[in-house]
Amino acid sequence: MLPFQNHPIQTRWPAKSPQLLQLYSLPTPNGVKVSIALEEMGIAYEPHLVDFATNDQMTPEFLALNPNNKIPAIIDPNGANGPVALFESGAILIYLAEKSGQLLPDANRYEVLQWLMFQMGGLGPMFGQLGYFHHFAGKEIDDPRPKERYRAEAARLLMVLDGALAGRDWIAGDYSIADIAIGPWLRTLRDFYKAGDIAGWQDLKNVPAYLDRFLARPAVQKGLTIPARPA
């Protein structure tokens, strides 16, 4: 990558504290994964709002950091071998865990990673599609089959998660980056998309309490609000 000081993103989101990790994000379920992780790990960072309302994610400056025009993305000026630029929330969570030595223990590293991938490949995409058809413009489509496809898959994934949480407070034993990935999407399905009932939330034995535990963590409460949305 270009030296951090000369990166194009600096022209649109100049760093006030360039020695800190720079977060470019929005408080969506994917975006808050990283702010929550940074708060949990105690890594100092500077957040920058990438506002979808003004198509910030499509600007040349942001595309120079993430050509896939999605949040979150980071630049860490203090990488092990120099500045590190990353996009994709799962990759960023792994990077931060390895940088800090937290929330990805050696003893069950691959169990944590499997549940992280479960969220990345399953919960996120399926919940997002159900949200589109239930809460956004997709609800105007007369054909019931697309919504039903995603409703059924969301319900199935919730049951998988519910079974795995039996007898556990956290999905891989101790609290980890897998929980940081999963929790925001459960909250979004239930509270923002208002799709919990149609996905069988009321039949779950373990997931509701799991989400409550997650949301009660101080670092989660703070991370859910970062970066602050425009007033």
From TrEMBL:
Domain GST C-terminal: 105-231
InterPro entries: Glutathione-S-Trfase_C-like, Glutathione-S-Trfase_C_sf, Glutathione_S-Trfase, Glutathione_S-Trfase_N, GST_C, Thioredoxin-like_sf
Organism: Pseudorhodobacter antarcticus
Domain GST N-terminal: 18-104
Superkingdom: Bacteria
PROSITE patterns: GST_CTER, GST_NTER
Family: Belongs to the GST superfamily.
Protein name: GST-like protein
